[in-house]
Design a protein that fits this description.
The structure holds 4 protein chains of 4 kinds.
Chain A (H helix, E strand, L loop, with lengths): L1 H8 L6 H23 L3 H21 L3 H26 L11 H24 L15 H9 L3 H23 L6 H18 L1
Chain C lengths: L1 H27 L3 H30 L11 E8 L3 E7 L1 H24 L6 H20 L3 H19 L6 H32 L4 H8 L12 H6 L2 H17 L7 H18 L8 H4 L5 H10 L4 H9 L5 H24 L3 H21 L3 H28 L17 H15 L2 E4 L2 E4 L1 H22 L8 H25 L6 H6 L4 H16 L6 H14 L24 H14 L6 H12 L6 H13 L4 H6 L3 H11 L4 H73 L6 H27 L2
Antiparallel strand pairs in C: 1-2, 3-4
Chain D lengths: L1 H5 L8 H21 L3 H26 L11 H31 L13
The chains are: A mainly alpha, B mainly alpha, C mainly alpha, D mainly alpha.
Chain lengths: 201, 463, 762, 119
Amino acid sequence: MNSIASILALSVDAQTVPAVLFYLFAGISAASALGVVLSRNIVRTAVCLLFTLVGVAGLYFLLESEFLAAVQLVVYVGGTLILIVFGVMLTSKSPFSRFEPKAGEVVVAIAACIILFAALVMAIRSADFRPQTLDTTQKYPVVALGQALLGDYLVPFELASVVLLVVMIGAAYLAKSRKRDDKRAVARGAATLSQKARQWS
Amino acid sequence: MSILNALTPHPVLAAAADWQKTFFEIVSGRPPLVWEQVTASVALIAMVFVPSVLLLAMFSIWWERKVCAHMQSRPGPNRVGPIGLLQSLADGIKLILKEDLTPAAADRVLFRLAPYLSFAPVFAAFLALPFGPNLTFEPKLNAGVFWILAVLSVEVMGVILAGWSSNNKWAIYGAMREACQMVSYEIPLGLSIIIGVMAAGTLNLVELGHLQGGGIHTWIVFKNPFVFCAFFVYFIASLASNKRAPFDLPESESELVAGFHTEYSGMRFAFFFFAEYAAMFIVGSIQTALFLGGWNDPFGIIGHYYSQWIGDPAAHRNSLIVLNLIAIAIFITKALGIVFVQMWIRWTLPRPRIDQVLYVCVKVLIPAACVLLLGAALWELLVPSWHQAGLIDNPLPWFHYNPRSWSDWARGGATTSLVVQVILALIGVSIVSAIALWVGYAFITRRTVKQRLTDPDPIPEPA
Amino acid sequence: MTVAVLLLIATLLPLLSFAILAFVGKRMGNPLAGIVGTFFISASFVCSLAAMIVWLSLDVAEGRAFGFGGQPILKTYDWLPGGLQIGIYVDSLTVVMFSMITLVAALVHVFSLGYMADDRRFPRFYTYLGLFSFSMLALVLSGTLLQLFIFWELVGLCSYLLIGFWYEKKTASNAAIKAFVTNRIGDVGFIIGLGLLFCHLGNATFPGIWGSLGNAGMAQSGQVLILPMVQGSAGAAELSGSLQKAEPQFTRFPHVTTTMLTLMGIALFCGAIGKSAQFPLHVWLPDAMEGPTPVSALIHAATMVAAGVYLVGRIFPILTPDAKLFIAIIGCVTMTIAALIAMAQTDIKRVLAYSTLSQLGLMILAMGIGSWVGGLFHLITHAFFKALLFLGAGNVIHAAHHEQELTEFGGLWRKIPYTAITFGVAVFAIAGVGVTVGDTMIGFAGYFSKDLILHHAGAFAWLATKEGGHTAYWLFFWLPTIVAYLTAFYMTRCWMLTFAGRPRNQKLYDRARETPVMYIPLAVLSVLSVIGGTALGARQMIESAAKETNNYFDPRLRPPAVANPTAKVAQPAHFAGFSTAWQNAGAYAHGDTSTIASDAYRLGERSLKYVSFAFVVGIGLGILVYSKGLTIPNALLRVPPLRWLNIWLYRAMYFDEMYAGVVVACTMALATVAAVVDRYVIDALVNLSARVVRRGAVLARLCDQFVLDRAVSATAEMVQEIGAAARAPQTGRIRTYVTALMVAVALSLAGAIIVVLSTTGR
Amino acid sequence: MELTLAISSSPIIGLNHYLVLAAFIFVCGLLSMMLKRNAIGILMGVELILNAANINLVAFNRFSYAYSPDHKPMLDGQVFAIFVIVLAAAEAAVALAIFLNYYNNFNTIDVERAQTLKG
């Protein structure tokens, strides 16, 4: 990000720009993560998730791992999120469907989460991780990442590819299995489709 | 990498920064404060960068209309400005002045958000484009190629949201088509980019540019036969991922009215339009930077002089600035050339059905890309190239070796790849020159505007 | 390395052809599938040829004066944990074998385009051929014995599939099963040998095996297996003494005894007995002629059956003299009986099959008496002329519309002249037509290889008897000599009955014709059969391979026996000759010309005069007897002893019947005994125990009713109550579970942190 | 100047900043899982949690800044993050396939209805 920094602020001291950018991206991702929780419309939830993911990608940039940021954008935003939105479109009964949780559940969940967050923050503050001093002149080249993936991590890498293959076949099978149901189910499916169309129109 | 480190600070950017500081000192009599600098930089981006992207997009829109008009034997826009050049500007003004309609049943927030979401990533992608050896906003972006791909993949979310939030049947069909088309075509797109990257050995766009500086035979598209084929796979996949014809299913007028932007009007519609044309330019730029030699001319002149001058950038500052300007012109010309081919194809081919589109991807392009990837990997493994000569990791032409000298290649143990590259370059040149000759023949025989190139004789102009 | 890559490509091309044809072969149909298969195998041949050229040029580059071949290449990769390796081993022998196999395979592919043209399962035929070619090439390329075994089984499978290719024919499917089962019997031995080898060495590469156990051949013979059988217990005491003295000389593995080595060698050789159809497992090969004739030419004459000889060649250094004696005896027996049987057969393919058996026996005998070069050289030349003979026979059969009986042929040379000429060339080659003028040898391919073997055999026999061995060792020279006469005779008989004389079946004669696609391969092969002995350099390359193999012996382990053959451990007189003779002969073969071995070799040359005119006599007699078709032989066969002999030989010495009688009867008897035991002993025991259990069950029921049932009911009620209680929080809502889980995690984490903070006092 | 003042209390962004942010995103993901009745909402919660974990991994990798003895950067954190992303994509694909089936069977995407297996 140094060159961007040089364009943006030219001679501002070295720490300020990363700090500003950190708060920017952290704010985006935290706020939209909160948005994921609070939003009641599932499509808006997905949009909030999009911003969280983009914010996290920005954070990866700040952490000097551009390749990971690109992977985050390609796979998460370009793949997973689109799949999710696809799923939303295929499954929501009305365009803006919402299901509300019970009030009691909300209270319990929020209380648990506040406790958990507090505990985590306490743990983080009290822990001493001894971070190294940053050497910002040094950058990790993508080459090293590739060598790590195809070197030390070759077996997990291949396993991941096998998992992906299995997932591809499995997901295709799961999504297709409906066709082997009896005709009644197919008719019901058609009925729901037409209902959906009526609702949308 | 050592070369890249030597390239910073960029002479041009440093000059700009100096100029900014001096300007401040003249105006206010003191060095600028931090917030003033930030504001000035933001203003610079807003006033130079954004308009130049818009300008490119507007030029492309005008050009597309001209090209399509010529292909349909009509003059095209020719009233506003010389040869209708200002037509896009006029359209833009019209769109800005139009009422900004939001359908009553739409999800208002998402409806308003979608155009920005579609437009913003395109700008982000410009960040990494290597316009010239010193004219890149982020030259040290290690995953440059990948970064552009990643950012462009965000654009599709805007389209999907536009379709969804319109709450309109045509729009939602368009959005769903876009989603499945995009998700499918990103695979051959990525694979073919990987093939190119594998042949080059780097993901950094600036380094890619320097690697291809030794003349046309060092361009990556001619590196080996597999890359040559991957070039075409990339082109087809990029058409689809840009929803350009013949893969413009998300907005196919004859079936879906206007697809995902049926409900949009005014400036928001213009945003989608700009985003599409800017994205066309971006994919053309990736193709240029990754396959077609980036900012380099076919004879390696730019690379040669750059390697001579960069040794002492202070002494050659003006020469370097001129060189960078020539480079930027070459780069944009090449990218626009690709854009032209995209247009040409759009107005030539009919539109397939959505299942045919997906068939092409899943059963043709992906297997082809996989086979090419395998072939390219085997090629890298088996055919001796500079990498394996044990000299330098990824030697740059002119810096580490003379690309025109047979003995240098032989010393690097890369004579086989040199021969292959020269042969492939000859094939590529002959394809391009065949097209050029065809067009030239058309011009000579006066088949200019109103006739198809294949007509037997020029149709006489009506008096 | 280029050679290795080329050979790998040559190996993988047929696999590619197999894969393509297996998936889309049916759709390609006839003749496209065949053309595809032919294309791939031809490409493979080109690769092999290129490899050979590179290999020879490597030699020039290394500055050796035309020593035929570069340094052997060994590349291994770890396959499985525990030291199992796979790899490739390339030496001159590999290169020669590759060229031979791919050439014959390519010609057979071409030939089959014509021969199999009318077949329904044409694509499948080429699919199998592709798989076979791949397996055979991979077998030859194998760097370890285990890998060799894998491909060994794979060629066996292909052989099975191709023998039974016309599985509608009962005889064909029976023959396929017979071949498969018979091979399994041999392979059991192979597996045992492999197991023994693994126990002591792990899965070593060939050079590894040679380096470790390579001096087995220097052991003194008579110490193990054969001695006790011949001498009885008298030799046993002596045996144990000599064992201890002899061991440390030749192996660095103290726990590998000579006995073990001998057993290992014989067990491994059992695989070769099965695959190369040696006595007593030779019965499958004649029946295998039920397969299509191109298959017989490729698999059951030229390549697969020769794999046994190849195997013996590869394990040769670890064979002890006893194991070699065993091998020599087996080879000798096979050679002799097969040659005798061949004289009486009337089916053209069976004549050739028994001739193949006889020649394989000759190769095995050559290996057994230490003529490594001779055996493998004969393998190559034999592949050429035997493939030629089979393809010629195929042409005859095709022309005769699948009539195979010699009695139905006659005079066919007018209708199929090219076949007749090439078949004649092959007959000359197998009969060993040739003369030696001074130092120059002129002749057909078979002349050179046979000459080499017989030369060696003569030297061997001379040495063996000179060292005080039994005069029976002379059989190793005399039997091949006699067989040489017989071979020339029965091959001439075959040619005369088929092509010469007057047509005996006019209808068949009128319809006979030949096509170019089928006789062009014959022409190529006949050229090779003529020049294969000298011009191709096969012999020189095999000699160089012998040197390369020899170089792998661990020099520290090389005993002084080679340099000084008279120094020997005390041993029984009967077997003295064998081991020393072998060593001396081996020493000569390995280039040691200074010792007694060279004298023996010169003496062996003298013995050759007994065999120089074998072809003249054999062919002359054949022409004489069969000049008037079947008239003269039929007259001769009316004499009772000759008639009986003829019937005995015609029925292949009743081996099949004997096996049916002995093996099957034994099995049936054993089964009967087992059935009796089953019925009267085991059944009785079972019934008895059942009765005991029934008595006991009454007791158990009482216990069950009043004790266990109560307890079970009580437990069930308790479980039901607990379950009812536990059921309440199981709402089935996933979110409830997540919430519960997270509340628990949050509380326990918070608790843990509070505890930690309070104890550390921060 | 105002900008720098606002953040001058902690100008150096350290490991803890990232960890707290990750904790917050993690908690948000948990809340989504607990409160959303839409199955896809739950899936999104899972994605948030995975992202939080990824931030931790990358941050630890960056701030430990380890080098192997042969002066190559150790990128274990980034590699793990890549695996997490890849497997998250796989998980999303399978989950969506399951949801589609679920939707076909129950005609809703509400997870509260998936109780037919309860004890």
